[in-house]
Amino acid sequence: MTTCIEAVWDGIEAIVLDAVGTLIEPVPTVAEVYASAARRQGVDLDREVVRTRFAQSFRDDENEENLEALATDEPTESIRWRRIVSSVLPELPEPDRAFEELWEHFGRPDSWCCFPDVGPSLALLRAMGLPIAIASNFDGRLRTVLAGLPELAACDPQLIISSEVGYRKPHPAFYQAICECLGQRPETLLMIGDDPENDVLGACRAGLRGVWLDRRGRGNGGSMRGVAGLGDLVAHLCV
Ligand SMILES: [Mg+2]
User: Fold this and answer.
1) Cα-to-centroid distance, 108 and ligand 1 (Å)
2) DSSP three-state, residue 71
3) pLDDT of 220 above 80
């Protein structure tokens, strides 16, 4: 794991970025969108309740996984999200309708925004001639989402998506797919992301370097140190 920002760039040939929570976030929030879907079926739910349920359901789903279960594909991701939607909104009379609406919503570019530091940071990396890849536990919808966000479309990144690779982070095969896609040895790749396990520890076990993007400055309850923004990290490239 890399904690010294000044040393992080030595020998790096390409940058690998996570997507959700690192480059993009849903606007309006997941809780607001789920609560609206419930309201369309006559069910009024407090947004904070929805937010807590979603966080728990998403966490439970990840925790249930083991290396074996990290195998995935497009149908598996659809089933997973159907399970999460029904667990977050169990009161709905038409759960299938809510799932279809939410699946469609989060597959649209206008449901997502880039964090403010993304455009300038990617422009700087491009100017330095560093290849950029985005590696995500999303599904095929991510291609449409990213193509519709100008800050990301402009840098024309390589996309490595778990449902297309066949394995989710932190399975070793996912990081191997990154290396193959970029034609690079793992030690020349720097992975940056907001998930300590998927974007840092898993990447480091596979031989990549990893930096944790702790946008909310909350720490991880352990010894891992993060950087607060992409700008802070990329600025060191120029010194
Ligand atoms: Mg993320």
Assistant:
1) 18
2) strand
3) no
- The partner residues of 136 in beta bridges, in order of sequence, read 161
**Domain ranges in the chain?**
5-23+115-238, 30-110
- Kindly give the distance from the C-alpha atom of residue 192 to the centroid of ligand 1, in angstroms, as a whole number: 10
Distance CA 166, CA 46 (A): 36
pLDDT for position 214: 93
Quick check: 6 pLDDT over 90? Answer: no
For domain 30-110, the CATH class is: mainly alpha
5-23+115-238 CATH fold: Rossmann fold (3.40.50)
Tell me the CA–centroid distance for residue 193 and ligand 1, in Å. 6
Q: Ligand 1 center to residue 208 CA distance, Å?
A: 17
d(C-alpha 199, C-alpha 210), whole Å = 7
pLDDT-derived band of residue 11, with 50, 70 and 90 as boundaries? confident
What are the start-end ranges of the E strands in the chain?
A: 14-17, 24-26, 112-114, 132-136, 158-161, 189-193, 209-212
